[in-house]
Specification:
This protein is mostly helical. Helix content is about 80%, strand content about 0%. The protein is built from 7 helices and no strands. The radius of gyration is 22 Å and the shape is flat. The termini are far apart.
Length: about 200
């Protein structure tokens, strides 16, 4: 466990450094650490909503109508926040598995297109480890998720150039691919919706 934490620390501090089989985090080690950070962030989220509800309680008026509104609001909001926070944390391993395999496929796909296939698998794993190591920012209760999101994009962009020799344009193209696929999926859903409407 100590060795895993040391390797993770080195990945966070030196995301683009060449790793060996001994210093490279495995798939399950990275998933376990990322899951831990998401559990911590879920705890922060639930705690923040609980504090907000308690603050509202002290600020609420004392008449019966306000008490009734607060009672329903308090119960509903607490239930929703707890379910949302726990659900996000519980299903994260599934999200990790899907996203990891998606990015691994995408990196290998673009490496073949741009004729950069030497040691692609190890380089792709190093880039993905760098990307997912940004989940460490989730330990910050304020702004952690935003920092993690932008750090993932930065690590991907720089990692493609440092580890796989992509140009700025090629790395930017890879970075935009999920947005492009999301746009195509949105267009497909809208087109299907209008097609169903036209049949009615």
């Amino acid at each position: 466990m100590i060795e895993v934490l040391v390797n993770f620390k080195n990945t966070v501090l030196n995301p683009f450094e060449n790793k060996t089989s001994e210093t490279r985090l495995s798939y399950f080690e990275m998933m376990g650490l990322c899951w831990l950070f998401h559990l911590i962030y879920a705890f922060y989220s639930i705690l923040a909503v609980f504090i907000g509800v308690k603050t509202y309680q002290y600020a609420a008026e004392t008449d019966n109508i306000s008490k009734m509104i607060y009672s329903n609001f308090n119960l509903s909001l607490q239930k929703f926040s707890i379910i949302l926070g726990l659900s996000e944390a519980i299903i994260y391993p599934l999200v990790f598995i899907f996203s990891y395999k998606f990015w691994m496929f995408l990196l290998n796909f673009y490496a073949q297109i741009f004729n950069m296939e030497s040691e692609t698998d190890d380089q792709a794993v190093d880039i993905l480890n760098a990307i997912y190591s940004s989940n460490v920012f989730l330990v910050l209760p304020v702004g952690g998720k935003v920092l993690s999101f932008f750090a993932q994009g930065f690590y991907l962009y720089r990692g493609l150039m440092k580890k796989m020799g992509f140009s700025n344009l090629q790395a930017f193209l890879v970075l935009l691919t999920p947005l492009f696929l999301s746009f195509l999926f949105f267009v497909l859903i809208v087109s299907y919706f209008f097609f169903i409407i036209s049949l009615i």
